[in-house]
Amino acid sequence: MNKANKKTNLAFSGKNYKLMLFGIAVLIIGFFTMTLDQEDYGFGFLGITLGPIIVMVGFGIQFWAILYTPKQNKD
Question: How many domains is the chain partitioned into structurally?
Answer without folding.
Answer: 1
